Amino acid sequence: MKLHREGYTIMAVTAIVLILINLGIRFLLPEGYWIPRIVLVASIFVFLLVVQFFRVPKRTVHKSDRQIVAPCDGKVVVIEEIVENEYFKGPRRQISIFMSPLNVHINWNPISGVIQYFKYHPGLYLVAWHPKSSTDNERTTIVIRTIEGVDILFRQIAGAAARRIRWYVKEGDKVEQSTEMGFIKFGSRVDIFLPLDAEIKVNLQDKTVGSITVLAELK
C-alpha cells in the first residue's frame, strides 16, 4: 500500500505514543491483568485507522474538458443555487462533498486549466456539515479557468477535527484534471461552484470517488 507524504510524521508520532502507552501500562499493572491486552488491541486499531487515512489509492482516470470530476472522496451533502460573494459575486450552482475521517483525504483538480485565483482564509473549525462552514471555517478558495474560458471555483474547508489544509498550487499554475492539488487532515468538506447551466450528474447522499466521479457537465 502506498502512503501519502503528509502522513509519515503523524504515523511515526502515533506509533511512538502508542508504544509508550502500552509499555507504561505493562509496567504499572501486574502480569496477567486484562487491561494491557485491551489497550494493545485498541492501539493496533488506532494505528490501522491512521494508515488507512493516509493511503494513496491507485485509480484509472478518464479526462474531459467538459466534465467536472469530484475533487475528493466523500458524500454529496449539498446541491443548491447560491450567491457566491468572494469571486463571482453572483449566482452559482454549489455542490458540497463531506469527507469523513474514514475517507481518503487527498484533493484532486476537478478540471484542467489555469489557476486564475487562489486565497487562503484563516477561520473557525465548525463541523464540516454546518451551513456556515463554507464561509466561516479555515479554507482555501481556488478558481480554475478551463481551456474554453469557464471559471470553476472550489474550496477546501477544514472541519471540527481537521486543523491543517495543504495545497500544492498557486496562481498561474497550469493544472491537469484528476491530478493531486492538496490534502486535508481528518474530516472536512470540499465545495464546488459551477455555472447555472451546468448539468448536474449526482444526487444528494451519493458517494463520490475523487478524480473519477463526474459531478457535472459544462454546456
Quaternary organisation of the protein chains: single chain
Approximate strand percentage: 25-35%
Distance between the termini: 39 Å
Radius of gyration, taken over Cα atoms and rounded to an integer in Å: 20 Å
Structural class: alpha+beta
Q: What is the molecular shape?
A: elongated
Counted by DSSP, the helix tally is 3
Helix content: 10-25%
Biggest pleated-sheet summary: 8 strands, antiparallel
What is the mean predicted local confidence, pLDDT?
Answer: 89
Main sheet strand line-up: 9-5-6-7-11-3-2-13
**Element string (H = helix, E = strand):** HHEEEEEHEEEEEEEEE
Unreliable runs, pLDDT <50, ≥5 residues?
none
Instruction: Tell me the number of strands.
Output: 14
In short:
The protein has 219 residues and is α+β, with helices and mostly antiparallel strands. Helices cover 20% and strands 35% of the residues.
Description:
With 219 residues, this protein is α+β, with helices and mostly antiparallel strands. Strand 6 (139-145) and strand 7 form a beta hairpin. The model has no long low-confidence stretch (mean pLDDT 89). It is 20% helix and 35% strand. It has three helices and 14 strands. It has helices at residues 8-28, 35-53, 133-136, and strands at residues 67-69, 74-84, 90-99, 106-108, 113-121, 139-145, 151-158, 165-167, 174-175, 180-184, 188-194, 199-200, 207-208, 214-217.
